[in-house]
Structures are given as C-alpha cells and as structure tokens.
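Have a close read of this protein, sequence plus structure tokens, and explain what the tokens say about the fold. Thanks in advance:
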Amino acid sequence: MVCRSALRCCLLAALTCCLLPCCGGNITVAVMLPDNHHKYPWALPRVFPAILMAHEDLQSKHGLLLGRSINILNYSTEDPVAGSCAESRAQVVAVDAKLYIRPDAFFGPGCVYPLASVGRFASHWKLPLITAGGPAYGFDKREEYQTIVRSGPSTTKLGDFTNALHTHFNWTSRAVVIFHDLRQDDRPHYFLSEGIFLNLKEEMNITVEAQPYEDDYKEYKDLINFMKDRGRIVYICGPLETFLNIMKLFQSEIQDPENYAIFYLDVFAESLFDCRMSPGGSRTLAYLYIWCLCFPLQSVFIITYRPPDNPEYKDFQQKLHAKARRDFGVHLEPSLMDYIAGSFYDGFVLYAMALEETLAEGGAQNDGISITMKMQNRHMWGVTGLVTTDNKNARNIDVNLWAMTNQETGEYGIVSYYNGTTKDIIWSQTEKIHWPCGGPPLDNPPCVFSSDDPSCNDGHLPVLGIVAVGSGLALIIFGISSFLIYRKLKLEKELAGMLWRIRWEDLQFESPNKYHKRAGSRLTLSQRGSSYGSLITAHGKYQLFAKTGYFKVRLITVRLCASFQMRDIQFNHLTRFIGACIDAPNICIITEYCPRGSLQDILENESINLDWMFRYSLINDIVKGMNYLHNNYIGCHGNLKSSNCVVDSRFVLKITDYGLTSFRSSCENDDSHALYAKKLWTAPELLIYDRHPPQGTQKGDVYSFGIILQEIALRNGPFYVEGMDLSPKEIIQKVRNGQKPYFRPTTDNRCHSEELTILMEGCWAEDPAERPDFGHIKIYVAKLNKEGSTSILNNLLSRMEQYANNLENLVEERTQAYLEEKRKAENLLYQILPHSVAEQLKRGETVQAEAFDSVTIYFSDIVGFTSMSAESTPLQVVTLLNDLYTCFDAIIDNFDVYKVETIGDAYMVVSGLPVRNGKLHAREIAGMSLALLEQVKTFKIRHRPNDQLRLRIGIHTGPVCAGVVGLKMPRYCLFGDTVNTASRMESNGEALKIHMSSATKEVLDEFGYFDLQLRGDVEMKGKGKMRTYWLLGEKTDVYVI
C-alpha cells in the first residue's frame, strides 16, 4: 500500500495510547479488506478513502463523538501470491489486532469466507463488525453472527425483489437458478444467487432448480437442456462472457425462445458499463447485441443495484476518486462499485450514532452487543440516500430491472425499480416491456413439465375431425400442385416465345476511343489504386468495368453470363435484367447500365471526397440489395465484391452479377494474380475448394460484405493490412490456414466508429454461425446511420450537393496548387533577374539595353584563395564559398543594391540600377562594404577554424549600360569602362581594406559622414596613374539624418 509507512506510525501511536491510562477516550477502528481494487468492489483503495472521509465529516458535519479521537488502522486480508481474499490471513490479522491493538470495532472483511471467520471472532469478543460486503444468506443467522451489521447490499434483499417480481407476474410454480461456480476463491456468483434460490423456495413455495457451471464450453449444452426440462423463468449469475456464450447456444438450441424469461444478475451493471448513454438515460447493451445478433433480446432482462440519485452521492464520488488517486495512487472510473464505498461511509456514520447513544447511556465503547442492537431498524440519510436496516442488521436495498425498450436499435432502459424499504415495485411510466408474445410467459406451461392434466393425454380424434383434417390437407396439396404446374407451363411458354432473347446484330457497340465522349463506366484511374491493382481491363486512360453498347436506344451493359429467370427481379438496389444473347460464341446477358462506375473505382478515386453520410448511404444500399437477394428464390450472390456494386446516375448503389452461377465457373481463365485477387472477398470455408461452389452461401456473402465494409471505411483497397505488403496469393493462403489469431484486414477506430468495427469483425467471423444475417445487419446499420431516417428526396439532394461541393473543392484545390507553383517560379525568376526586368519578360516584351549615368560598382575577392583551394578538397571549397556568400547575401538585403554575379571567389554588386536612386548609390555601396568587411573579420572557416579570410574590396562610380544577354539562361549584365575600373580598384587594393576611386570619393563627400584617407596615385593597368582613397568607416561625431 502507498500509505503503509504512515500506517505503521499510526499502529505505534495506537499501541502507545492503549498502554497509557490517560487514553481511555480514544476509539480504535480496524479496517480489514483486500488490496485488489480491479477484482473487489470492497477493496482498500476503494473503501478506505470513504472511511477516512466519514471520519473527517463525523464531528464537523454530523456532530458526533465530539471530544473523542478515533484511530483508524487498515490491514490487508489478501493473499499476495494469489491476489485474492485469504480466510487464513484474515483470521491471523483479526487475532493479532485483538491482542496488540484492542480495537473497539471492525470494518470488513468484504469477502464471504474471511467475513465468516472474523464475524465469529467478533461475536465471541462482543465487538461490532460493520461491512458493506459479504452478501451471503448465512449472515442472517443472528445466533451465530450477533454483532455483524451489513450496511450494504445482500443476497437476501435480492431474493425479496424476485419474490415481488414473481408475485406481480403470477409466477408461482417453477424457476431455475444457474450460477458460475469454480469452487475456489470466494465463490461470488454462488453467494449472490443464493438468496434468490432460498427466498423463492422457502417464502414463495416455488419449485426452484439450481445448476452450477464452470468455464468448460461443453457444459453449456447441458445447461440448455436443464433449462428445457426444468423451467421457463431463468436466473443466470456469472461472468458476462460466459453468459453471452450460453445465450448463443440458447439461440441455436431453443425453438421457442419467446416462452422464456431470462434474468441476468449483473448487480454492478458491468454489461452496461461500456455502452453509450443516450439522452433519455437508457443504455445500449452493445456487447450482448452484437454477440447474439439473431437472438430475440426482448426475453433477456438485467438486474442491477439502483445507484443513488441524491446530489450528496455525486459529490461523494468525486471526492472519493480524488482521494483514492492522491492517497493510494489508483485511478477509479465512476461505476456502481462506488455504491459499496458509499455504504461503508454510511456504515461508519451509523456506527458513530449507535456508539454515541451507548456512551450516553453509560455503556462501554467496546460493548458490541449494545451498539449493534441500536443499529437495528434504523433510518438515516447518508451519502447513498435513505439508509434503513431490518431486525437482522441488514440494509434494505433498491434494485433496477432493465429490459429492451427499443426493438429496432436494441437499446435497453429501466422498466422498473424495487424499493427495498417499502418492498414495492415501481414501474416506469415511459419505458415498457415488449414481450415477444404480447405478455409474460408462463412459468409452468401445460403439458411441458407435467402430464397430469387429462387434456395432455394422447386421445383419439373423432371421425369427423379426422375427415376434416384429411380434407384440408388434400386441398392444400391440390392447391400447391396446381400452382407449380401452372408456373411450369407459364415458364415453358415464355421460353418458347424467346421474349428474353436478343440477337447479337441488334447490339450497337462503340469503339474505345469514343468512351470519353459518351456515357460509360470510365472514371479516371486513381493515382493510388488498390494495393493489388485493378481487376478490370483498362482502355487508354479510362477504366472500363464492362463492355457497353446500345439496344433499342437504351444504353446497356453486356456480361458473359446468362439467366432468363432474372427477368422477375425488379428491385431498386439490383441491376435490371434486359435480356440475353445465346448466339455462339457471343454468349452474354444484357443488364441495366450504371454510368457512375463501380464502388471499387469510386473508392480508389482520391478526387472524390466521400463523407460518412455518403458512405453509410452506399452501405445501406448494399444491405438492402443483399437482404432482398437472400429472401428471394435466388438465395445468395456467391460473388459479392466492390467491383460488382455499381452506382447509377442518381448515386444509388446497385448489385450486379447475381444469379449467374451456371456461367461463372467457366469464365475463370485469368492469370494467377487476377485469380487470387478475385478471391480476396471469399469466405474461409469456401477457400478450401480449388473452385468453390459458384452459387456460394448466405454466410459467405456476409463475409464478403465485411471485406467491402473495410474498403469503404479505410479506402485502401480490398483486404488492406497495415504494415504488410502481401500479394493476393499470400493473403488467400493465410486466410485459408485458419490459424488463431485469424488473419483479417486492419480496422482503425480513428477513421471510423467503433460500432462499425464491431460489425466488420462480426461479419468476417471464422465460424459462419457467428455471422449475422442481412436482416439483422439492416437493423444495426439503421442505428449507425442517423441521417438514414430522412426522406429519399432529401437524401438524394444531399448526395447531389455533396457531389457539387466535391467538384468545387477539387477546382479550388487545383487552383491553389497552380498559384503556389506560379509563386515559386516567380520567386526563382526574381532571384535570377531584377524585378522590373522579370516583369517585362513575363509580359512577353523585349528587354532593351539601358544606359545609366551614374552607378557605383563593388568588387571583392579573397586574398590567397588559390593557395587555400590547393590545400583543400573541392567539397570543402564549395562549402566555404556557400557559407561566405550566404552570409553576404543576408547582409546586402539591408541595402538598396543588386547582386550581379559571383565568379569563383569574386563577388560583384551594383547600386543605382535597374531602379535609379540619385546619388544614394555611393552611400549604399559604402555602407554595405563596411558591413561586409566587419562580418568577414569574425567569419569562421569550417575546415580551417584558425585561419581568417582576407577580403579585398574595390569601389568605383561612373556610367554603365545594362541589359539581358542570351536566350538560354539569360543573364542581366553590365557593360562599360566603369566595370573595368571597379575591377582594377579591387585588384590593386589590399587585404581587409576598401579601395575606392576619386569619383566615388567626390559623391561620398556630399554626405559628409564617411571617414576617408588618401592613398595617393596608383598605377592602374590600362588606366595609368589614378588618385585613390581608403574607406576607413563612418564618422561617429556626425549626426546623420
């Protein structure tokens, strides 16, 4: 325990206090509970914070035991190895506490067997024992457990509820109790159902049969036979998983489930805990619903404790969870288990009230007999509401009864609750029980469990009755025979008339190069596509799902299979059969054409945005079509897949390729990859055949539907498995192996709802019997698709609006992409050419050369660069120049200059063009030069960090001519003597100095704040002697405006 060290200190203090005579006013309470808060609702991390809260509120809130201090110590009664309650450990802890601590009262244990032992000790020691656990029937024996007080629920009170329930429905004869019992640990389900068995048997005089079961699935069939032979009112108490397994077997074995009423004893509502709360307060039993999808759940009821609805309990829950997290480091979720902690809180307050009354009468604080007698037949308001006890010191509890209140969605709601204080059942005014037969079943139907009634004897029918029955059967047989004969004659007449036959010459076909002009199954192929490639032939850049043509001005689809019986099929979600051609070798059938293509192509087209309203509409269309097929004489599809689900012009999905079994097997002439790719939707039980039966099975269709659901949900192609790149053949082999865990596609609750994941996993279950049929899938999908309740017209308009919005979004996206690429191209162009020149070229104009009267040109290079390059690798040289010029480029952005070019270590910049700036060009170049020179002094060379770059700079001012030269890789170049002179200024300069001509000096003198130094007359190649100057910096004593 987290607080174990602190508790040792409390233990030492309690020992010291007990040894001192002045501590007689202290009260010592020993709390004995297990540690496992996941397994036990009365575990220490759940209950001990509640007892501490009651202790804190005792004097301040309730005004009890003023002037007295209470020492509360806790002990674990759990076996640390087994992680469960241990009777022997509880006995040792109780005896040690009595010898060394001398407690005045015990709280706990909660488990039955440890409570029985400690309860006998407490009765012998005349010490009160208060607990909210220990629900067993045996603790009602006051002569053996005379000091036990149960402030929480007990099995006897559950039995009182079932007594009232049987009285209300007039079930007075028979009942069955089935409970899970491993005969180890604390046998919780045995003791919980014990009160129902004994109360019905002893107080109602009902014949009650009890049957335990273990975790062996083979025993479940014996349970079903036990229910058949012994009763129709059944109480089941056990883990949720075992209950669901029993219900699945019940569905397959029981022929008349409407004649049963099954009550599942789930006192802490664990079967309802993970289910979503609806605004009306009812919950949907999601796990039970999907596991027993075919089971008539109207006959299943859930019995739970009734949670307190007073505001004090809500505040208590929040404080309890916070204290448990702080003191014990455990995170508790709100649940009915908090009711047990609240009952311990109320038990502590009730004990304090009885103790204070005993002390006021002059009694001792450890007089358990007097204290517990004062706790009998008490009424008080606690955090769990009204607390009342009976003459056996057992609390009266309230119970909820849950039943299915919505047969379409499977939602469960509270139909009644039992008031334990008044022993009345209060029935809901809004939620009713929907009995399958209109009323409650009989607990002792006639001629089932007893044949004493004379009407049950096998007597002989009178002669008149035999004649009537025989005549009726004869008429029925005659009518059926006549109908079959008439239908056969009618079919033969239609066959003779060949109304369905179409000649090959009557069909008009278009060439592939015309498909882009007229309607056809031709959505552009997706850039992604499924991971297994398209299963259909592609002509050009358009995907063609089937060959199309015209017959009597109607566009139709031609498929190489035939069945004239399909003329009888007329349904909105199935493609309409037009006719058939049997002119060899052109054997085919002609069906209605759907211009939007197949579902597979729509899912693989990334440009089509499918919201969940649209996806649920497509799913609903598939379910409706398959439900119609399964209830038609065709029976099943046998080849359901996304490419066989086509969409018409109104965005209504229709199923095709049904009822074509006679030709399907002969059409499989594809290569190995295509053959295995077509089997991705095939159920495992059909993959064991090299060529599975073409007619398929209904459960196989459900499996195929599950694969299509995953396609629609993730849009990653059929049988997408995250993180695995498998070929269709490898996938089929893994599915066919059938080894656990079964190989199935990936589901992702981030992309779709958890309910859809449950439906998918149910559809592709390995055992066909566990897969739901399309009738129940239709109900389940209707619950998921909230928009499906709107009218067909509204749904169609919404689909059209979605399609239009999709196109608008696509155009907007493409436009933004175009503008972004245009911006990138313009930025690149502006980096190569001046902005004004680039704008002229964009407008398609010829860039004329332009003369500029006065500009200032900057040249610089690196002294010793040649020797440095010889000592460095080419990559190091490139890295050096890139670092240097990146640094220079960042600096020149702060000045009105234009970078002309870089050649090797030479760097050329000009100011005053292409946009003229008066005489500011000299100032801009001078300021830039000083900034570059200052920066280069601190520049670090990566591969030679100890060396300093020595930059040599030359500046000259004069006229130039500028223009764009060349067609390929055009460059903006400068021409004129000013360029040569500026280059000479640089080459005749010195390292880390700025060398300028007298022309530049004259312009800078007009600004008056540059510090210049005369160098003298310098011989220039091709120029003779020129007077030049050094630019030293800017004057600090001059105020610049």
